[in-house]
Amino acid sequence: MRKVPYRIMRQEEIPFGYPNAGLHRDLALLTDGGHCPNCGAWCTYVHERCPRVVISGSFNGTPVYDSFVHRRFTCDNCHRTFMERLSWLEPYQQLTESGKTALLYTAADSTFKATGVDFGRSGQNVKVHVRRHYNSLQTDDFNNRTTPAYMGIDEISLAKGKGSYRLVVYDLTVPWRPQLMRIHDSRKKDEVAALLRQFKHPEQIIAIAIDMWEPYKTAIETALPHVLVVIDAFHVIQASTKALEEVRKAIQSRLTKEQALALKQDKELFNRPIEDLSADEKERLQAWEQAIPELALAVSLHQKLRCLYRCRDFEEALDLLADWEREVIAAGLDPFHKMLRTIWNWLPEIMNRFICKISNAKTEGKNNQLRAMNKQGFGYSIASLRARMQIKEDQTAVIRCRQHQDCKQKKSG
């Protein structure tokens, strides 16, 4: 098909926030005819002129509207009429490929309805474009994706308080690769194991980060027995924080009303790392520790466990845990005794963190992003949410990859 060149005759930018915001361009097509699709003859007789407006991209976060006159020709040879073929626009479409990309990237940050308003179409039409793009990528099939060396498995509840947990699987190998691999309706052990068996090259998987949920561990050991199971550092510190809170609440219940209120107001001092406290906050913390020795013991145990993930190697971490264990037993605080049993139950997986240093921190961040997207649209179907997230992942992966290349060039230069 011959390319139909055009010239921009006039353009006007309407800034974001105004009605019909965007870059409006008037185009003039520069050819005098077209080839008949039926017989191939060159035709110049114009049967009809149809004014059209199409969206051909984005400019400063707003659409680019191209207005032109689309001509219908009559063939002198076979007497049929046909619309002029345009190399940059598919027949019967109102979006160029660049326009579709702009629409998809806008839909990653806005609701379908809001995107539709920006691009002059319905929210349902935007949803169709997003779902169609997602289906074309075929990201649901693990066989069509590179098997990652490192993964994170977690659950997410999109409807707060309803307990409807869904499984999410993330690729933790490199930051510039789209990381969301799967959102699954169930987190049951058998279904998790079945999903893990779908990878094309399971032998390439080195480690998987999880929280302290027994079915995940069992599923991984069943489907991928060679893989290291790593307990994320966040969940270990979270368990210690809960133990510290239980001690504080027990102490608080024995104090006067005024003292209990003051202790509650200063509760953040006990959880935060000592080095993050200001001079005034350190003084208040020392005052509480001197007044309540039991609280001082709990804070000391919590802060020492925080130091676990500053250890440089496996042996140093194991020595610190052994010292921490002796201190917990000597302290006699029930919440930390429960915490100690948790450490014993998950000790190999906790220590695997010092063999393979991966974290589910990005997984937790992506889960927050999924929840924000879901709230933004007052609830999406799993397919629509997965499609929006995939487009956002593709968009940010390109940015991260460019940043990595720029950083690498600066270091080499």
Structural commentary:
By secondary structure, the chain is α/β, with parallel strands linked by helices. The protein has four domains: 1-94, no CATH class; 95-137 and 382-413, no CATH class; 145-232 and 359-379, Nucleotidyltransferase, domain 5 (2-Layer Sandwich); 233-350. It is built from 15 helices and twelve strands. The protein has helices at 97-109, 112-119, 123-137, 189-196, 214-223, 233-252, 257-265, 267-271, 279-291, 293-306, 314-331, 334-345, 347-351, 361-376, 382-412; strands at 6-14, 22-29, 34-35, 42-43, 45-59, 62-74, 81-83, 150-157, 165-171, 180-184, 207-210, 228-231. The strands form three sheets. Strands 1, 2, 5, 6 and 7 form a five-stranded mixed beta sheet that branches. The chain has a five-stranded mixed beta sheet with strand order 10-9-8-11-12, with helices on both faces. Strand 8 and strand 9 (165-171) form a beta hairpin. The two termini are 45 Å apart. The model has no long low-confidence stretch (mean pLDDT 86).
Task: Give the topology.
Blueprint: E1 6-14, E2 22-29, E3 34-35, E4 42-43, E5 45-59, E6 62-74, E7 81-83, H1 97-109, H2 112-119, H3 123-137, E8 150-157, E9 165-171, E10 180-184, H4 189-196, E11 207-210, H5 214-223, E12 228-231, H6 233-252, H7 257-265, H8 267-271, H9 279-291, H10 293-306, H11 314-331, H12 334-345, H13 347-351, H14 361-376, H15 382-412
